Amino acid sequence: MKALISPIENVQYISSWNLPVEPSKRCTPNYTICGERVCQVQEEEFPVAPPLFWMDCADNVTAEAYCYDATNQTIILISPNELDPTPQPVTTGTQSA
User: Fold this and answer.
1) Per-residue pLDDT at 94
2) In the list 4, 14, 26, 47, which could disulfide-bond 81, CB 3.0-4.6 Å?
């Protein structure tokens, strides 16, 4: 398989959260860049304009779940987002459908 890489588009994930100063406010996310965008994955290359480029990849790579690590020149899995620690509102009673 071939992955089309866009080195001008960063991929990021939520690595942590800032707790709100006021209890009624929501937490705010901290983003960490993990690599460059994999635009698409397919069996055959086609001509692309720079700075886009193709690279070989494993059959299980998808554009949504992977990015390109330029430092190691490898395709890596995007880290999962940390869950929002903002407490959910408490309700009482039931809701009928």
Assistant:
1) 67
2) 14
Instruction: Look up residue 97 and give its two tokens.
Output: 């459908």
24-59 burial, b at 16+ Cβ within 10 Å, e below that, comes to eeeeebeeeebbbbbeebeeeeeeeeeeeeeeebee
DSSP-based helix, strand, coil % in the chain, nearest 5: 0, 45, 55
Going by C-alpha positions, the residue among 94, 88, 59 that lies closest to residue 75 is: 59
At 54 the three-state DSSP class reads: strand
Q: Domain limits of the chain?
A: 2-77
pLDDT, tens digit (0-9, with 9 covering 90-100), for 49-73:
999 999 999 999 999 999 999 999 9
Task: Single out the residue of 77, 81, 87 nearest to residue 16, CA to CA.
Answer: 81
Please provide residue 20's backbone torsions phi and psi, each rounded to the nearest 5 degrees. Answer: -70, 150
